[in-house]
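Title: Comparing notes on inverse folding

I've been comparing how different people in this forum approach sequence design from structure. To keep things fair, I'm posting one structure and asking everyone to reply with a full sequence. Here's the target:
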């Protein structure tokens, strides 16, 4: 009954250890080898640590929103990065990446990823499925070895900032016209000088039955899928090209390049070359010889005027 008790005092907020949400490691000596990363992390930067692969311990951080692995030696990305269901920023600047896998394009990153920095790597191409990352707002592809941009890049409707300077781009995909950007940088690419008379003829007469059927499916918007037709036909249909006339072509077409002022797709444009130009060549496809001939006639008339 007479046992003395100390007076209870409320705990001060600063005395309670808060869950760690941000961690930055910029030295190899500070990299944890025996301990795990805090599971509460929302932002993690690991740079200048000479990592040759993504540490699997990072992939258990389910609250992670930003992952910065810039300035390492990473050659390949594990598909399990796509399991980080909250990830909105992925920064891989200055690594040794040679590919960006289809699996990542088809993962939960489709719904979360808004910023992707793949600059200063060794990428030569991106998969057709790349344009499934439809939440992207900011995409950085500078200083790679890209010879082309994704065929359906116009499907990235939320994209506002695109930089692909210092690559090996000779021409832009026709879908590029559908973009609506705030800032665009394509400086230092070996763009060709477009000439409508320079063309690739990939037509046969008459058209093969498969091409005619595929065109009909696309033009009439008939539903299709691997449960209805072979998977390789679905892939062909995904790469359908739109002719000037509004109809589509699949594997048989005439292809040329036309000049486009990049201000048509972006409010701010970094000059394409040292000469002060803001024009770049864009691919154009024609479903028939008559469509191509009409295009040439119109081009000639514009030239005369």
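Reply #1:
Here's my take.
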């Amino acid at each position: 009954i007479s046992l003395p008790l100390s007076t209870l005092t409320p705990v001060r907020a600063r005395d309670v250890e808060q869950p760690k949400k941000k961690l930055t490691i910029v030295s190899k000596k500070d990299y944890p080898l025996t301990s795990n990363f805090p599971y509460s992390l929302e932002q993690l930067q690991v740079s200048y640590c000479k990592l040759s692969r993504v540490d699997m311990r990072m992939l258990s951080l389910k609250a992670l929103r930003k992952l910065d692995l810039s300035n390492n030696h990473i050659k390949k990305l594990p598909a399990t990065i796509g399991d980080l269901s909250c990830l909105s920023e992925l920064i891989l600047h200055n690594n040794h990446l040679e590919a960006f896998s289809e699996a990542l394009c088809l993962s939960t990153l489709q719904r979360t990823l808004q910023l992707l920095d793949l600059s200063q790597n060794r990428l030569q191409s991106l998969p057709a499925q790349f344009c499934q990352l439809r939440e992207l707002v900011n995409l950085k592809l500078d200083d790679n070895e890209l010879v082309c941009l994704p065929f359906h890049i116009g499907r990235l409707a939320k994209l506002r900032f695109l930089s692909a300077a210092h690559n090996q781009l000779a021409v832009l995909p026709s879908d590029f016209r559908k973009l609506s950007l705030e800032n665009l940088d394509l400086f230092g690419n070996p763009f060709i000088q477009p000439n409508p008379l320079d063309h690739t003829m990939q037509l046969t007469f008459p058209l093969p039955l498969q091409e005619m059927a595929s065109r009909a499916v696309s033009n009439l918007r008939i539903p299709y899928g691997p449960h209805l037709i072979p998977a390789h036909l679905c892939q062909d249909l995904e790469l359908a090209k739109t002719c000037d006339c509004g109809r589509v072509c699949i594997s048989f077409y005439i292809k040329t390049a036309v000049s486009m002022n990049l201000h048509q797709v972006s409010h701010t444009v970094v000059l394409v070359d040292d000469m002060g130009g803001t024009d770049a060549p864009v691919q154009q496809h024609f479903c028939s010889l008559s469509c191509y001939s009409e295009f040439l006639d119109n081009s000639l008339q514009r030239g005369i005027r």
